[in-house]
Design brief:
The structure is a single chain. By secondary structure, the chain is α+β, with helices and mostly antiparallel strands. Helix content is 31%, strand content 23%. It contains seven helices and eleven strands. β4 and β5 form a beta hairpin.
């Protein structure tokens, strides 16, 4: 591994769905900020029924991440679930306030800027604090059998098989699709903490609804043959050619015919890998051409 490469590896892409008319924007958005303490991120899916939802998604993700950055000390290792919940509520509130101010500036209804929002903070040591409002899914990878931080022969947890998990239930709150501008929106906000010293989160993937159908099976369980492979390919490409090139390749994949034929929705995928050399149990490592 090149010591000059930044770790964690961050790769992301958002593309416009085919249901849009020519000239319309992708209504998804994501924002990421790299800090010494960890990575703050947010993903928003603008509601198709809202006239300016693309702008709403950009505002919500920008200000949510700003809130997570401001509160990093409560999100890394010391903050408990109550503190995480309070920070995630504040992140949603900042997004809502930004949307409201923009609506007033433009003299439009704030519901015209409607968007979902899910956000997280992945600490340097592998703890993920997360918040989830609306559709979309956050996935994590953790060591499969991490009773010890190190393997019997001294190998690190990152070199052993990993398990994919869904953080928030896509079959539950997601199907109600509350938006940041919905009445009583914070009632639907889910928050939590996942990952610990002996079972750290190795990688995170956040997707909007357009990709969730590929990334989960009919029961809502993660598909290692899709999301697991993308986590690995993104990491490998970023290590070889840099995050910008890997993100460009990801956009190309999200725009590909094989994906477009199965969904006309906007498609966004963000991956963050603390340990890029991942092994997905039961999966072969795909080459970049498989995208």
């Amino acid at each position: 591994m090149d010591d000059e490469k930044e770790i964690p590896i961050i790769v992301g892409g958002a593309v416009r769905g085919e249901y849009h008319a020519d000239g319309e924007q992708c209504e998804d958005a994501y924002s990421v900020e790299r800090l010494p303490e960890g990575i703050a991120f947010a993903v928003g899916d603008g509601l198709g029924s809202a006239k300016y939802s693309a702008e709403g998604a950009r505002l919500a993700t920008k200000y949510a991440v700003q809130c997570l950055v401001d509160n990093a000390s409560h999100l890394e290792e010391n903050g408990d679930e109550q503190e995480v919940s309070q920070v995630m509520m504040e992140a949603c509130w900042r997004g809502f306030v930004a949307i409201t101010h923009r609506a007033i500036q433009r003299d439009i209804a704030f519901s015209d800027l409607s968007t979902t929002l899910h956000a997280g903070f992945l600490s340097e040591k592998g703890r993920l604090a997360w918040g989830h409002l609306g559709d979309g899914v956050i996935f994590v990878q953790k060591p499969e059998n991490p009773e010890e931080a190190e393997g019997e022969k001294g190998e690190s947890a990152s070199s052993r098989p990993t398990a994919l998990e869904v953080v928030a239930d896509p079959q539950g709150v997601a199907h109600r699709t509350p938006a940041l501008t919905s009445k009583g929106a914070l009632h639907w906000l889910e928050t939590g903490i996942i990952g610990a010293e002996k079972k750290p989160v190795l990688s995170v993937a956040a997707v909007t609804d357009g990709i969730a159908q590929f990334a989960t099976d009919e029961e809502g369980a993660p598909r290692a043959d899709f999301i697991g492979k993308l986590l690995r390919v993104n990491s490998e490409l970023a290590l070889e050619a840099g995050e910008e090139t890997a993100s460009e390749k990801l956009v190309g994949f999200l725009e590909s015919k094989r994906i477009a034929e199965k969904t006309r929705d906007d498609r966004t995928l963000l991956t963050i890998s603390r340990t890029p050399e991942l092994i997905i149990e039961g999966n072969t490592t795909p080459s970049a051409s498989e995208r």
